[in-house]
């Protein structure tokens, strides 16, 4: 037959069978057993040797990272098989580019013959191979078509609110009557509820994790494995206790998942296309969410509050025993930075809250160049917020007239704006309808050749530009109207919520986080009559800012009379009655005391070393981390370590810096003996350390001034010669020379 080259070669054959999940199990002709039977019979008829059978059951043809396929590739590379046979080309794969790579590059380079029986593909048949690329393209098109259909089916079911996961998320079980519907799992739902309660109370992930771990609760993966889910046991094989250790990621996933508020969330990670296996994660706000698909473990309001807390990273920050209930809420009114809690008193108070004040973090870091202190006492802030919450709660319960007045004041501007926006929206929609009619008329004129192609393009471009501008503006107007409607509803929600806090006696993080978005604190202002006032703005959930509060800051202590520093004599205002030094001198005194303490400690340790070493001539007590060694002894030990390693290259950087003159000479003599057959780089300021080196580099300000031996540099490098002369003069210097000079 023309175009076919036959061989009498006996092949070592590997038959490859593959079945995708999408192929189904009902199609007998495509089953693994059928493929094996067809391929085995073919090999026997040809009289070849069946070396190995490779099977990938349940793997897609678009992905070549299949276990058995990769094993086959390794066997080809090792020379174990030289012929690959499949039932048809699609069993090898459905990716056009990868199939072509194996058929046209990999198999020929490794002298491997490939045969696809049903498609008549044989790499020895050149004419049949000409059509093979088209078969690969058709196989890929089929796979792409199947992929689109499956994705469409999944999306349709997802949009109907059907849960499509293999296993139910932690806290839920699949409904026995409908596996696409979730029911609350009473065994562990209380754990999820507790996690959300802890988050609502202002606890961070670290504290929640510590609390849950202390209760010895099975982590989600361990619980899933206990319920029969597969693939999780590998996490606990080596450590049984690991079943009860929760990670912050697990907690974060629970707190972030809309599923616990009764909403189905999906499409969190989507591949760019069928061929790409990378599925980058989307941000939570980009997830697709279907509301009210099942019963939630927490309410939507609680879930939304937790998201806000996590976004602003509100967490409790302790200053001693002080519970910072305003963490993440209190801000500077001028720069927007958070206010941090810090100790404000030098004298102890019965209540820790009276020893704490808030100051601007921007000011604390950079001083008054960036902002001012905006200091407010913790007690003043606590009382002001508590009083304002009680005022609104009493009003919501007892004063309907005041409630209506607030509603009117908050919505009056919005209602007026909403009316204007509604008129504009109607006008924009009307113009869009007119443009649609104009487009239809314009297209008809073009078809009937009433206008030229040029005029049609010009007019249609003009209309299209106007359409885009109107649609953009219409989107803005619609969003503004929605915000207005939401604010009206928010006022009712806020009043309904705050009624629950009537008669509140104490504030905690749960109350603050439930009611308040943020608190802005202004700088203190002193009026003409000498009184000091401070403004606070509270932005509540649902309604925002209602009205500012004006407080009189508490004066916690009276300034002490000025003193004179006992060191420098400068007058200063002390922070406490026992202060003796101005701030600058206080730091110096403290530093000197610290240095003296360290010196005494080292002297004491050194004495202990001498006493212990004296008891045994061969024993030198060095102490923990060389505590009993002097600087010179440490340096000699380091040098010994370097030469004991017996490396070909040795770098000595100021190796005799701590040595006296006698020891320096001995160390240099040791260098000369030990440096044989080694390359030694010496960095030094003392000339005696390097004068016997084979080559000396003289550097100044990073630039090379000369190089060579000691003798050569004395002749060729003036700088080196001057250094040697100066060193010799210094070595001969005596007190008599000093007296003679004077």
From TrEMBL:
SMART domains: Resolvase. Gene3D superfamilies: P-loop containing nucleotide triphosphate hydrolases, Putative Large Serine Recombinase, Chain B, Domain 2, Resolvase, N-terminal catalytic domain. It comes from the Bacteria. Pfam families: ABC_tran, DUF4368, Recombinase, Resolvase, Zn_ribbon_recom. PROSITE patterns: ABC_TRANSPORTER_1 (PS00211), ABC_TRANSPORTER_2 (PS50893), RECOMBINASE_DNA_BIND (PS51737), RECOMBINASES_3 (PS51736). Residues 12-161 form the Resolvase/invertase-type recombinase catalytic domain. InterPro entries: ABC_transporter-like_ATP-bd, ABC_transporter-like_CS, DNA_bind_recomb_sf, DNA_bind_recombinase_dom, DUF4368, P-loop_NTPase, Resolv_N, Resolvase-like_N_sf. CDD domains: SR_TndX_transposase (cd03770). Residues 169-316 form the Recombinase domain. Keywords: Coiled coil. One of its GO terms (molecular function) is DNA binding. The keyword Coiled coil applies. Residues 418-445 form a coiled coil. PANTHER family: DNA RECOMBINASE-RELATED, DNA-INVERTASE FROM LAMBDOID PROPHAGE. This is TnpX site-specific recombinase. It comes from Marvinbryantia formatexigens DSM 14469.
